[in-house]
Amino acid sequence: MVDRGASALSLPDDWPAHPDPILALNRMGSFDWDLDSGLFHMDAQAHEIFDLRPDEFDGHPESLACRVPAAEGYRLDTLVAQAMKDGSENYGAYFRLRCRDGSLRWTHTQGYIRRDETGRPRRIIGIVRDATQELSEIATRRERAEADEARRQQTNVVQLTTAALAHARTVQDVIDVLKDTHGLTHLGATSLVMGLVEADRIRLVAEGPAGSFVPGTRVTGIDEPYPMSEVVRTLTPRFIESPQEFADGYPVLWPHITDLDITSAAYLPLIAQARPIGAMGLLYSDRSGFSADERNVLVALGSSIAQSLQRAMLYEQEKDLATGLQQAMLPRTIPSVPGADVAVRYRAGTAAGTLGRDIGGDWYDLIPLPGGRVGAVIGDVQGHDTHAAAVMGQLRIVLRAYAAEGHTPAAVMARASVFLHELDTDRFATCLYAEADLSTGVVQVVRAGHIDPLVRRPDGTCRRVGVEGGLPLGLSAEFGRLDYPVGTLELDPGHTLLLCTDGLVEQPGADLDDGMRTLMALVADGPDDVRELADRLIDAAGERDGDDDVALLLLRRRGLDAPQSGGRLQQHVRLGDPEALSGARHMIRAAVRAWGAGERADEIELVADELITNALMHTEGSAVVTLRALTGSGRRVRVEVEDSSSALPRRREAGESGVSGRGLLLVERLTDVWGVEARGGGKCVWCEFLVRERA
Question: How far apart are CA 220 and CA 237, in angstroms?
Answer without folding.
Answer: 18
